[in-house]
Amino acid sequence: MTEQESVDKICEQIREDGAKEVESITGKARRTADEIVSRAEAKARQAGERIVKDAVERGETAKRRTLSSVSLEVRRIKLRAREEVVTAVMSRVNAAVEEARSRADYAAVLAGLAAEAIRVLEGDSFVVHADRRDIALLEAKSFPRIREIMKAEGRSVRSLEAKPLPGAALGGVQVSVPGGNVIFDNTFEARLYRFREETRSFVFEEVFSPHDRIE
Fold it and tell me: 3-state class of 103 per DSSP?
């Protein structure tokens, strides 16, 4: 073998070794790349699943918030509707009350209100407080009627005294015993206040159906 042949053989061996090394490196690189891609795809899937899960959870939270907001709004609407009904009823009642003093039977109305108060008070002497405009009518026509009502119920009334209220009143009376601190307020204002609460309860129970009631 000549010197040139020896050189050529060495060069060929170097090329073969180099090719094998390149192939080995390339294979490793390819496998590494595949592993990287696989890991990246797995991470991408995990990230995607996490994003979807978070979105669903946020969606459920938003849904609950929306339902809660709707429920509150429905409650506000129901409350507003109920108060509008109560206000409408009370407006009509107020109008009727304001006209009561001009009615022919107003003396009988005062007598009935006073008798109602006397029934819950003790004794046989009473002070009946009323608007100054009603004092004369009270003494002239209502007091005799009060005695008749109570006598029919077996209750003796020895004395009745009329006194003006400190301020103006729509009508009605306040009744107390002489020197006593207990006063039964049966003025129209007091009755209107009580009636408003009764009306609110009535509207709640009767006007709105069970599934419309406010929890």
Answer: coil
The answer to whether the predicted template modeling score (pTM) of the entire model surpasses 0.90 is no
**Which residue from 189, 97, 172, 73 is spatially nearest to 129, judged by alpha carbons?**
172
Q: Residue 58 CB: number of other CB atoms within 10 A? A: 10
Q: What is the architecture of the domain spanning 104-189?
A: 2-Layer Sandwich (3.30)
How is the chain split into domains, by residue range? 1-72, 104-189
CA dihedral 88, 90, 93, 95 (to 10 degrees): -70
Contact 143, 162 (CB under 8 A): yes
Q: What is the pLDDT of residue 131?
A: 95
Residue 14 and residue 87: Cα distance in Å, rounded? 106
Q: 149-184: buried (b, 16+ CB within 10 Å) or exposed (e) per residue?
A: bbeeeeeebeebebeebeeebebbbbbbbeeeeeeb
Q: Please give the average pLDDT of every successive group of 10 residues along the chain, which has 215 residues.
A: 60 58 58 63 69 70 72 76 77 79 92 96 95 96 96 94 93 92 91 84 68 53
